[in-house]
Design brief:
heterodimer; A: about 110 residues; mainly beta; five-stranded antiparallel beta sheet; 11 strands; globular; B: about 120 residues; seven-stranded mixed beta sheet; four-stranded antiparallel beta sheet
Amino acid sequence: RKEVEQDPGPFNVPEGATVAFNCTYSNSASQSFFWYRQDCRKEPKLLMSVYSSGNEDGRFTAQLNRASQYISLLIRDSKLSDSATYLCVVNMPGYSTLTFGKGTMLLVSP
Amino acid sequence: DTGVSQNPRHKITKRGQNVTFRCDPISEHNRLYWYRQTLGQGPEFLTYFQNEAQLEKSRLLSDRFSAERPKGSFSTLEIQRTEQGDSAMYLCASSSIKGGDTEAFFGQGTRLTVV
């Protein structure tokens, strides 16, 4: 089983739609979780951290389910500018590094 | 610009040549990471420094790869005897040990093409 798994997509949605991505991780002792966004041929940038209680930032909501070892990202009222690859990132216990999933591609169309 | 800076942005080299990339992290960050990313994949961890100490290395990092961070500031990644399979985007990131979360800030990357 891969350390961090994501559905690569692409997810094709119209503007205004709500879309959700899930990500599973293999190590139950993982401590920190993040969603990064990567535009085509650009570097990854932090979108939001994921907290145990769930957290929201504008149209974006992130949730963590430790029992099932997955995190989710919900995007409401999708904008064209949300088109990007969304990378699920996990900090494995005992390591200072971040482990990335392959990313989920989102395409928002007019 | 106070972000992570990488040079060069692009490098084309012939198979068998050596290449060196440079990364200048955000000045107050003591952690520095190198990642490699190929098309359709997420970034894959290569190595990690805390200050000048190289604390972690991936199994992906063959003996042709070496990284240094001599004064705990900038870092270099050298690939010797390049192979076509080394073609990828090489990303550098930095973070601070302060604070709870390990938010890593990435540079724009060096795109290596081995021909």
